[in-house]
Amino acid sequence: MARTVLVIGAGIGGLTAGSLLAKAGWPVTLLEASSELGGCAGKFKRHKYLFPAGATLGMGIEPGGIHERVFRFLGKPMAIEPLEQVMEMVHPEATFVFHKDRVRHVDGIAAHFPEYSDQIHTFYKEIYQTAAIVRTLMDPLPVLPPSTAAEWAFLAKSIRPKHVKLLPFFNQTLGHRLKKHGLGDLQEFRHMLDGLLIDSMQTGSEDVAYLLAAVALDIYHEGAYYVPGGLYRFSELMGDSLKDNGGVLKKRRTLEKLERKGNLWMATDHRGNVYEATDVILNVPIQQLPKILAPELVSKLKVSLRDGIAGETWATLTLYLAVDSAKLKEPLPAFRQISTGDGLAEGGHFFMSSSVPGDELRAPEGFQTVTISTHSRTDQWIGKEKYEETRAVLTERMLQAIQDAIPEFREAIVHMESGAPKAWERFAGRPNGFVGGFPQTLDAALFNSISHHSGLPNLYVCGDHIFPGGGTIGAAASGIHAARSVSGERLV
């Protein structure tokens, strides 16, 4: 029987898997529930303004980066320049600047804490050395946790003598290392790190797995990018490649049922169309699996995957604004974090990204579009009255924090709308508005991650809940692993 591949979901993970397999000659059909590609890294338009739905900061496009390797394999390179100044990090005590250059960055951070300068320099030296070693594993990109003999063999083949240096850190958090360097009680410094980590690791310095934290704090230096138009361009490149290589891409097709019949998977969409395939890659939030699989199939999923389905992650409130740049003293920077000192969620910390002047893919001349998002706990959104109250409170909290930094900001707003958890559930298919994947703590990271192997024959999962975790890089890596398992080839 000739093998065929069905990919469900055109987020970054599904598009990565589908486009790689199509390029390698596999017959691929990809179904997407929305009219847009990219999932949480997609876009939508209002009037003359285009807004990135969620993810905004481009990563992994540097030479050898995960996305760059995929685009190179597809023959669709993306040539844009990395940011020398990645972002501003506005805190009550100080405004820190994240520089691409490592030396300049560390010197700038240490200047805020002169009495701890030596400890900070030593801490970052360890961070960068550790990240450099971990990054050597990103070339072969072994799977964790390995599920097959071939994956164990590939992991063993990927290990080099230098990786032994990582063993003492395997069960440590970043909090452990901060204490080791005498920085455990330097709260202003830790708050700055927390702001970086909550956006990439979904947790703060006390609990995040150290090996992943080291990579997260270092990877901006490898290359962070402003992508004209937005990260939806990643999705469009892969969607175009899939079709160029004979794949079929169908939008507005919502999967309602996935059944196993003999050696085939049978997928039924909301229109009653049935699709047959020998191999299926699901790029849907794992919380959807009990809705599309029969109970007897759910019971056969891997234990880690079943446990993940029952777990909770963060929700978010996202604001989408357009501003009249003429009413601002200066254009808004492309990327800025703002922390009020009131915690990592509920508007106490948020990420703000703006289109740069001249990016007319996102806004006409003289205007900028702005995407602002904060983490939120799902229990803040229970009940209609509390839901609307939370939306209003968090919106005001974030707008006021921006107003404190930019007094003319509110006056410049010409359009505003919000994306609360129900919107993420409706438009991005995220049950309960869960976004971002699981916090990368010791009990959820590395060998404790959820594998792309579902536990059912020829059924694979990918996306931000699957190893190696959230973000476009993590989602793409899980898609690569799924494509490798289907094809039996390394591909990239």
Automatic annotation (TrEMBL):
Gene3D superfamilies: FAD/NAD(P)-binding domain. InterPro entries: Amino_oxidase (IPR002937), CrtISO-like (IPR045892), FAD/NAD-bd_sf (IPR036188). SUPFAM superfamilies: FAD/NAD(P)-binding domain. This is FAD-dependent oxidoreductase. Residues 12-486 form the Amine oxidase domain. It holds the Pfam family Amino_oxidase.
